[in-house]
Amino acid sequence: MARSANLSSFRKGAMAGLAFGLIVSPFGVVFGVLATEAGLDVTQVLSFSLAVIAGAAQLTAIQLMVEEAPTIIILASALAVNLRLAMYSATLVQHLGDAPLWHRVFCSYLLTDQSFAMSLDRYERHPELTMGEKLAFYYGVAVPTAMIWYVSSLAGGLIGSSLPSGYGLDFAIPITFLALVTPMVRTLNHLAAAGAAIVVALLLAGLPYNLGLLVAGLVGMMTGAQVEKMRSGDTA
Fold first, then answer.
1. I want to staple 35 with a disulfide (CB 3.0 to 4.6 A). Which of 40, 53, 215, 216 is the partner?
2. Domain layout of the chain by residue ranges
């Protein structure tokens, strides 16, 4: 009975995960092409996606590699972009914190915007789910999403390696980020965070290696948190 329930939960998650293929695959292809533009070969492109599995962080790192930024700046910037995953993890602890260690390790590796959002929504709508069903749904969302990212990154790497040198696809990075971020701006908190980050980023645009973006990101997060705190106070 439990096995059947887990399998059903996995299928429901997989259906949701596969639906994200239309969103994830173009970003993966863009990453693969831009990574080859930055000097990576196809094996390195695929290894990058297998090791990091985080589109925004990977695109940030590639952009800084193109600009020949120091390694420490590349690592710090990629980590800053992925700080949201720490908040995702903290939120999921209440649902998956009692899972066996090896499950938690795999869940951490497969944690993305998609697996977090879909799983949290499922858990909150169905509090009666067992731990097995919760894990099955999470993997159902995460595994197809990850596989699509790997394959599309590889496809982009193969496409990029066949393009003439210096094809000039750097413009695709900011366009991709706009496509990633814009749908997420849904509340006043998000709008305030995005607005503050944009203003600071423009003011600090002259800093080397896009360090202004790191500062802008921190200011944006603090602004969003402050607005949310003020709104919560008003509600209370």
1. 40
2. 2-183, 185-236
